[in-house]
Design a protein that fits this description.
Layout lengths: L10 E6 L3 H12 L4 E7 L2 H11 L3 E4 L8 H11 L4 E5 L4 H5 L8 E4 L7 H11 L9 H11 L14 E6 L3 H9 L10 E5 L6 H9 L5 E4 L10 E4 L4 E5 L5 E5 L10 H12 L3 E5 L8 H9 L3 E5 L9 H7 L5 E3 L1 H12 L16
Parallel strand pairs: 1-2, 1-3, 3-4, 4-5, 6-7, 6-12, 7-9, 8-9, 12-13, 13-14
Antiparallel strand pairs: 10-11
Helix pairs in contact: 2-3, 7-12, 9-10, 10-11
């Protein structure tokens, strides 16, 4: 008799790409995993939408640059008619455009696999995202805007002198970061430091996309950069970021024990050492427990710690681990984090930057 759990249904995937070669590589890699079934293929957005409605897959992988209907427009249509998890597979040169797909409902952006790429990475990503609850990409920003308009967001002036905000995030993090940064004022008065798990080569595209939705300047961290109020420093995926006691960024090589890139714990632990009780640590959506040790160090240093709640998280893993171990000062939905940061730093929360609208294609 089969053991318990052996009858679990495979993840049903629709592969969308205009290149027959790319579709062949993607389907070949996915079919090596017995937990995944490729149930169909599409070569453009129009065909993808039709097959989503007919086949009802658990997840769609999709390219951005396609004829007849682009991937961006297809994602919008899918999320309007039949919301489901969408994984964007794209080339590095399309990274900035691909990240705008997150504002339309896609869950994550990774590099399109090549023949020599290990198949386990794509398969693991697909199985992790399949079954994730999906929400309207505009709902959170609209909710923040409504709260600002009706006056419910009126943060008290509880000023943290010489404070810093350090954020750890993973799966679903880019969209969460966009929501938070779009709702922060240009005169926040504190630097923001971010460690976001990311495939190599894609950090620049994410930063360019975040910049378009933020009043603060978002930049890729460089070794030796001064940590300055009004700047958002994003760690490159290829190296770990930490802060020196002189208030400068230090980039170091990844350690053998670092499973995720960049390591969130390295950043948060350095922030706790340098800023102590003036630290604000935020742990967002993501798998695993990277960042939990760092959040603990900020809490132990007298800093303030925030965790994204389960309902607004794409994957409630990192935040859950920090909460269950008692390292979190407050648990908030995504649409409440920006206001809480402004409250802790002093100031007024502006309306969010307008969410992106449809691009014809």
């Amino acid at each position: 008799m089969a053991g318990a759990g052996s009858c679990k249904e495979p993840v049903r995937v629709l592969v969308v790409d205009d290149s027959p070669v790319a579709r062949r590589v993607i389907t070949s890699q996915l079919r090596r995993d017995r937990g995944i079934a490729v149930i169909g293929e599409a070569e453009n957005g129009i065909e993808a939408l039709k097959k989503v409605l007919e086949l009802k897959p658990d997840l769609v992988t999709i390219d951005i640059q396609m004829p007849m209907m682009s991937g961006l427009v297809a994602i919008e249509r899918i999320m309007e008619l039949s919301p489901l998890p969408i994984l964007v597979l794209t080339a590095l040169e399309d990274a900035e455009t691909a990240f705008s797909a997150l504002a339309r409902g896609a869950l994550e952006v990774v590099e399109k696999p090549r023949l020599e790429s290990p198949s386990y990475f794509l398969a693991a990503k697909v199985k992790a995202l399949a079954g994730v609850k999906v929400v309207s990409p505009l709902r959170t920003k609209e909710k923040i805007a409504e709260a600002w308009a009706n006056g419910t967001v009126k943060p008290a002036r509880l000023v943290v002198s010489r404070g810093v905000v350090a954020i750890a995030s993973s799966t679903g993090g880019p969209r969460a970061l966009s929501m938070i940064l779009s709702s922060l004022p240009a005169d926040l008065g504190a630097p923001v430091l971010v460690a976001q798990h990311m495939s190599e080569g894609f950090t620049e595209g994410m930063v360019q996309w975040l910049n378009a939705n933020s009043r603060l300047e978002v930049r890729i961290a460089m070794d030796g950069d001064a940590v300055m109020p009004g700047l958002v420093h994003i760690s490159p995926s290829e190296r770990n970021m930490s802060i020196t006691r002189a208030g400068r960024i230090r980039l170091s090589e990844r350690r053998p024990e670092d499973i995720y890139r960049p390591c969130c714990d390295v950043l948060l632990e350095s922030v706790s050492r340098v800023y102590g009780s003036s630290s604000i640590g935020v742990i967002l959506t993501g798998m695993g427990n990277d960042g939990v040790r760092g959040i603990a160090s900020i809490r132990e240093a007298g800093g303030y710690t925030i965790a994204q709640d389960e309902n607004s998280s794409v994957v409630f893993g990192m935040a859950r681990a920090a909460i269950e171990r008692g390292f979190v000062s407050t648990i908030l939905p995504l649409d409440g984090i920006a206001a809480e940061l402004v409250k802790r730093l002093g100031g007024q929360c502006p309306p969010p930057v307008c969410p992106e609208r449809s691009i014809p294609g």
